[in-house]
Amino acid sequence: MNLIAPPDYMFLAMESREHPMHVGGLELFTPPHGSGPDFARNLYESLLAEPKVANMFRRRVGSAMATPRALTWTDDSDVDLSYHVRLSALPRPGRIRELLETVSLWHGSLLDRHRPLWEINIVEGLEDGRFAVYTKIHHALADGVSALKLLQNSLVTDPSELHVPSFFAPRNTSDRPGSRSAFSAIRTAAKLSLDTAGIIPHAGRIGFKAALAEQVPLPLRAPRSMFNVPIGGARRFAGQSWRIERLKTVSTALDCTLNDVVLGMCSGALRSYLLEQAALPEKPLISLVPVSLRQTGANGSNAVGAVLASLGTHKADPLDRMQEITRTIAIAKEMMGGLSQLQALALSAAFVSPFAISSITGVSQAVPPTFNVVISNVPGPTQPLYWNGARLDGIYPASIVMDGLALNITLTSNADNIDFGLIGCRRSVPHLQRLLLHLESALQDLERAT
Amino acid sequence: MNLIAPPDYMFLAMESREHPMHVGGLELFTPPHGSGPDFARNLYESLLAEPKVANMFRRRVGSAMATPRALTWTDDSDVDLSYHVRLSALPRPGRIRELLETVSLWHGSLLDRHRPLWEINIVEGLEDGRFAVYTKIHHALADGVSALKLLQNSLVTDPSELHVPSFFAPRNTSDRPGSRSAFSAIRTAAKLSLDTAGIIPHAGRIGFKAALAEQVPLPLRAPRSMFNVPIGGARRFAGQSWRIERLKTVSTALDCTLNDVVLGMCSGALRSYLLEQAALPEKPLISLVPVSLRQTGANGSNAVGAVLASLGTHKADPLDRMQEITRTIAIAKEMMGGLSQLQALALSAAFVSPFAISSITGVSQAVPPTFNVVISNVPGPTQPLYWNGARLDGIYPASIVMDGLALNITLTSNADNIDFGLIGCRRSVPHLQRLLLHLESALQDLERAT
């Protein structure tokens, strides 16, 4: 018996029908040339035949009946892989649209607490012959960054390398073949947690009290927006890839970071979307941008912070918006640089703690938002990766939304691409997929302007 | 605002992650001759285009945040049909096996309480060119019998009749075309509730107290069995059709009712299954068999009762088992016949009330089972039915399982067939689909013996 540690426990305690606390990812693959129609099914069957399941994927919550303050992890000695590993298909015509619709529904349903808290779904029936993989892992097992990293455990840089153990198989970092070192930078950052939900336990422990004691000022004031409302349990998911090269050209022209360009794309897209919805606030939207703080200690773990950036959505000109973004990011980073790590953590905690509270008490409407949206940039693989010869075309993160935070934008690099994953409350954020069109237009606007 | 009536309220209050309180049904259809590959998609789109949604399908729970004793129904003025109506596909090869696996997963996930409590999923990709429809309705909206009836609202006896309003469209009994009178007997029995879960609210209201006051003896004692354990949230579903003619031949030879033969099939199948699992109790399994009591009042509503029948599973000979079934059913009916309606209801309530209690408190392991399994026979259509020209080949009910009651067998007539729907807790009832093979063997045994 193994008491669940407080941060992980919080994700279980906070979870409700309306607030599933799992993270997910959608991966798109092109099967190797000449492979038959059973390629996806064969992968599915190879997962089912995996002889061993790693400890973290065998863990389940000890007793749903126990008092909520004493949840334990127990080892599920008899993991039913046919429950956790699934094979599905898209309805005709099998476009990306049908895929996103399907993933939206899956991401809105709760994991079964009587079982280890993960699922993987291999999806065939895409009209272009590709296949997809949707994975869902409870945040009590892994935060968003670790989850994405875990998914990549069975991927290799060599397309001819077959029969790599599945991501849920036991593995030892020291006995990996060298061909898998492409993303060792990610692996060594095992405790890196850049997603917002990952900050919340810190908020719970450090919270307002520390922030107040430190007298840390909140530098920006967020307007109320359609994204800062109580949410329902259903989700809408959308994802798309952009060539990094296009963003790099803009960042070079503007002498800003790649992430500033990402924020600029989001800014333009959110402005267009809010105008369409007749819901653009007069004041600019404020984005929470998780950042990695300095390294702490010999174990290589990173502390996680977050800065607030104005997205300048009140301005019509894309370059004016970029200016506001780079300016507020610079202020935030300077402020963060002048803080001790505890202060930085406390500041980050203060940003997100209203959400931790509102998720439990449902009072979010009474708390003015500290920020309007989370835009999280997670490091991904830098080289093309393969799964049993199938090329990974995209990894689209599906994160967590909460009361008061109905939209989350998480992106990750993948070889020559940046892959965006958008997740929203289905009721509060209608036509979420239109944000993809607006992201493309916003990038085009920046390209034209520079 | 509209307070939710106590019986319906109970299904909401009792519901938890492990105890979804929805009923479902799987329907199989053969598209009309010469229809193209888009037949299922066209049906899906015609459902999405339905201009109006009937009151009961617009209702949602007023406030999930309200105190649990004051839930209300509110009218959802903006029903998002694209959430409730879904189009899916089976993975290759698209056998019935893949269909049942998919429905098993769907039946284990909770409906979203922020929305009207129903879903319909049209499934294409069956290898034989047929398509399927899985529907899920919360028991607070409709009990199992009414739900099956509702599904049939858009079905007609005339294969050339097209564009019948969908089952969730508003309709008025008096303005139906005459061609839909095939199952008017079902429709007039609108308040008939023959599924076990439907009895539980009566148990809550009448309960043990009445049963004790009436001094009603419990005639049979059930053994502990693998079916009478706490359950998890995941489900396994299986369904299959049998020709009524085959059962009729047996019932004529044995001079018993068709339902006795159904119980005989279940008896043989459960015995074989439990032997395989090395879990056959020494004493015979006891089945709860919901029955309709006499008519009450002018509105044509029926009261619902239940009798206990021994399934004789301790006996190896199929005719010995049939004898035990018919004998105990006769005793139960005789006893029921000598009771007032209140007594009969109280008796039925006493049978099921331990489950109502155990579902809330989780104490089922301390309460010895009153019965081991529910076998519920629900009247269905007596003539072949069609949906926009597609022939209904089968209706397989998916009911509710509970703590202490991990297996439910519900069957319904459909023209010349009897369609069995089996639902079980995925963890407690492994290899549920083997019961289908055993049901066929059990029927063959009875055919050989008579």
Task: Kindly describe this structure.
Helix content of chain A is 34%, strand content 22%. Chain A is α+β, with helices and mostly antiparallel strands and 450 residues long. Chain A has a domain at 199-380 and 397-449: Chloramphenicol Acetyltransferase (2-Layer Sandwich), CATH 3.30.559. In chain A, the strands form three sheets. A six-stranded mixed beta sheet of chain A has the order 5-6-7-2-13-12, sandwiched between helices. The first copy, chain A, has a six-stranded mixed beta sheet with strand order 8-15-14-11-9-10. In chain A, β5 (85-89), α4 (96-107) and β6 form a beta-alpha-beta unit. The longest helix of chain A has 21 residues, at 341-361. At the A-B interface, β5 and α4 of A face β5 and α4 of B.
Task: Characterize the quaternary organization of these chains.
Answer: homodimer
CATH architecture level-2 label of the domain at 199-380 and 397-449 in chain A: 2-Layer Sandwich
In the CATH scheme, what's the topology name of the domain at 199-380 and 397-449 in chain A? Chloramphenicol Acetyltransferase
Question: How do the strands of the widest beta sheet of chain A line up side by side?
Answer: 5-6-7-2-13-12
What best-fitting shape of chain A do the alpha-carbon axes yield? Answer: globular
Fraction of residues in H or I helices of chain A: 25-40%
